[in-house]
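About this split. The held-out portion is used to measure sequence recovery: a designer receives only the structure tokens and must propose an amino acid at every position. Recovery is the fraction of positions where the proposal matches the reference. Here is one held-out target exactly as it appears in the evaluation file.
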């Protein structure tokens, strides 16, 4: 059923954000507005090489605010990296954070913030609403159109000892301001743009069919799907096109506002499990898993999946029978994946049959599973991983 206008009580949380070309240039001014006396910049080597971190340091210099750069952050950011960042934050006497980069530096920055104010280990915040003190002022400058960590109340951190990703969900993780600048996308590689674009599309799709969706989140989810469906493939073919980059950045922003408030589903529960276990790129996991999960969920949210199919270009969907609708939607998803070279399988990424029970067990305990429209058993998740192997 499409959500009706008579809704249950719903909260919608979003940060202040500025969207548009050159939004990134405002980081220094915002740090000043927040009264920062020393800023920790959290970034990663790729973003530094692209020149975006230097722009942040120059902005802080002109605002006469000292800073320290922490860039020991890897994809699928690790608990140890958060703890090291928090140590440097303390040692350097920082009182505000600027995160510049994709989901990894932003999630790491969120972690550093709550560790430094709560004086706890990052792994102690696992789950929903486990953070009592908000972190220091956090300014996010995203450089990918995908994770939406810059607007979400989520942070995903890898526990290397248990080989799992923990999900931290808390309103305190919503940044104080997000400076969303489509120009930063012009240095993203084709592969990373494809992965992150598929991540954003999955965010919008899972938020739309989530059990916690509302007309408010649907608005952002549908527009996120529409924008990403129409701009992702052409943006990869024309990487310099600012209009297309703006559309993918806007799609990611909308998808982020939707999922931060409606949460996600089984694709993310299974992708988090894979990312914690084998460090596979998050967008790649989503791209593989999304078709299998849509096939599994379809009957529980048929009308909504029909709307998604139409946005992905399936014509005359309403005249089809249920099974035909499902096939048409899966074919449309397959076309998107093929166009961006993401029609791979888990075996090709090194996942083995014998790892599946452990992966399924970890997926079962991920908080994202709670809002999936169909409650899966562990056996059913194992079958889905098996389908995704081939
Ligand atoms: Fe994601």
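Reference sequence for scoring:
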């Amino acid at each position: 059923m499409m959500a009706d206008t008579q809704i249950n009580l719903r909260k919608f949380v979003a940060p202040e954000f500025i969207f548009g070309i050159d939004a990134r240039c405002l980081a220094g001014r915002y740090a000043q507005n927040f009264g920062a006396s020393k800023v920790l910049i959290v970034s990663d080597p790729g973003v530094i090489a692209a020149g975006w971190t230097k722009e942040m340091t120059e902005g802080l210099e002109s605002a006469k605010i000292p800073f320290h750069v922490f860039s020991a952050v890897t994809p699928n950011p690790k608990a140890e990296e958060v703890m090291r960042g928090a140590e440097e934050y303390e040692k350097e006497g920082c009182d505000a954070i600027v995160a510049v980069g994709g989901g990894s530096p932003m999630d790491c920055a969120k972690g550093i913030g709550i560790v430094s104010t709560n004086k706890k280990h990052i792994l102690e915040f696992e789950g929903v609403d486990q953070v009592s003190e908000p972190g220091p002022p956090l300014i996010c400058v995203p450089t990918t159109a995908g994770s939406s960590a810059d607007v979400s109340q989520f942070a995903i951190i890898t526990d290397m000892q248990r080989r799992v990703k923990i999900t931290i969900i808390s309103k305190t993780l919503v940044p104080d301001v997000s400076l969303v600048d489509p120009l930063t996308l012009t240095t993203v590689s084709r592969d990373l743009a494809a992965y992150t674009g598929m991540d954003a599309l999955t965010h919008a799709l899972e938020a739309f069919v989530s059990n916690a969706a509302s007309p408010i989140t649907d608005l952002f989810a549908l527009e996120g799907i529409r924008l990403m469906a129409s701009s992702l493939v052409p943006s990869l073919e024309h990487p310099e096109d600012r209009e297309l980059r703006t559309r993918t950045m806007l799609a990611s922003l909308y998808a982020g506002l939707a999922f931060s408030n409606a949460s996600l589903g089984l694709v993310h529960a299974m992708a988090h499990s894979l990312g914690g276990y084998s460090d596979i790129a998050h967008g790649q996991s989503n791209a593989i898993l999304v078709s299998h999960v849509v096939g599994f969920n379809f009957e529980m949210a048929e009308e909504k999946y029909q709307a998604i199919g139409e946005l992905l270009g399936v014509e005359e969907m309403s005249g089809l029978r249920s099974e035909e609708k499902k096939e048409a939607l899966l074919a449309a998803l397959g076309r998107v994946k093929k166009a961006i070279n993401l029609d791979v399988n888990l075996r090709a990424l090194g996942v083995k049959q014998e790892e599946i029970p452990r992966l399924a067990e970890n997926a079962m305990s991920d908080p994202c599973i709670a809002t999936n429209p169909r409650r899966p058993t562990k056996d059913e998740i194992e079958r889905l991983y098996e389908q995704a192997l081939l």
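Annotator remark: The two ends are 33 Å apart (CA to CA).
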